[in-house]
């Protein structure tokens, strides 16, 4: 079974998540291609899709939105899973007591629900390094108060990512084993 794991990443954290999902699925004897959304010229020929993006201001990156919106019929005709990354830190709930990961869901999860009927959606924690920020983000990141307010570090929970990827492999009927 062929699976496409497509991602849109700005600073590499989401790419790392996509690569890990791909490795986990390969470990379950699935044939997997992991590619940047902007590099995917053709989505036909796959039996399942995992599409993810970093989220900024509750939106996926443009490349991920374009991939889905230009290939809705093809994606909807197969099993599809969606993921997002972005929340920083380790807090489980915000100041109002709401789940941090649920609160970080991108708008696209709702927008694509009726179009794609995804078998699952997942928000993963991201990573942030002040020194890797560039372009317009650099100006914002260096504003007084913002730099100190942004938790710095790698907050990706690899066990959560592996468990989610294994659930995809299970749903696709992949042989047991792997991580």
Automatic annotation (TrEMBL):
<dbReference type="InterPro" id="IPR026816">
    <property type="entry name" value="Flavodoxin_dom"/>
</dbReference>
<protein>
    <submittedName>
        <fullName>Menaquinone-dependent protoporphyrinogen oxidase</fullName>
        <ecNumber>1.3.5.3</ecNumber>
    </submittedName>
</protein>
<keyword id="KW-0560">Oxidoreductase</keyword>
<dbReference type="InterPro" id="IPR052200">
    <property type="entry name" value="Protoporphyrinogen_IX_DH"/>
</dbReference>
<dbReference type="Pfam" id="PF12724">
    <property type="entry name" value="Flavodoxin_5"/>
</dbReference>
<dbReference type="GO" id="GO:0070819">
    <property type="term" value="F:menaquinone-dependent protoporphyrinogen oxidase activity"/>
</dbReference>
<dbReference type="InterPro" id="IPR008254">
    <property type="entry name" value="Flavodoxin/NO_synth"/>
</dbReference>
<dbReference type="GO" id="GO:0006783">
    <property type="term" value="P:heme biosynthetic process"/>
</dbReference>
<dbReference type="GO" id="GO:0010181">
    <property type="term" value="F:FMN binding"/>
</dbReference>
<feature type="domain" description="Flavodoxin-like">
    <location>
        <begin position="3"/>
        <end position="169"/>
    </location>
</feature>
<dbReference type="InterPro" id="IPR029039">
    <property type="entry name" value="Flavoprotein-like_sf"/>
</dbReference>
């Amino acid at each position: 079974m062929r699976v496409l794991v497509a991602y849109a990443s700005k600073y590499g954290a989401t790419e790392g998540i996509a690569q890990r999902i791909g490795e986990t699925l390969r470990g379950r004897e699935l044939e997997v291609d992991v590619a940047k959304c902007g590099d995917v010229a053709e989505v036909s020929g796959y039996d399942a899709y995992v599409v993810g993006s970093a989220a900024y201001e509750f939106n996926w990156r443009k490349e991920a939105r374009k991939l889905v919106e230009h290939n809705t019929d093809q994606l909807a005709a197969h099993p599809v899973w969606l993921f997002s990354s972005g929340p920083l830190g380790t807090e489980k709930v915000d100041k109002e007591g709401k789940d941090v990961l649920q609160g970080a869901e991108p708008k696209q999860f709702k927008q694509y629900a009726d179009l794609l009927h995804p078998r699952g959606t997942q928000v993963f924690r991201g990573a942030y390094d002040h020194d890797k920020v560039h372009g317009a983000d650099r100006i914002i990141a260096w504003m007084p108060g913002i730099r100190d307010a942004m938790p710095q570090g790698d907050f990706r929970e690899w066990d959560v990512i592996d468990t989610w990827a294994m659930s995809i492999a299970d749903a696709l009927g992949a042989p047991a084993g792997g991580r």
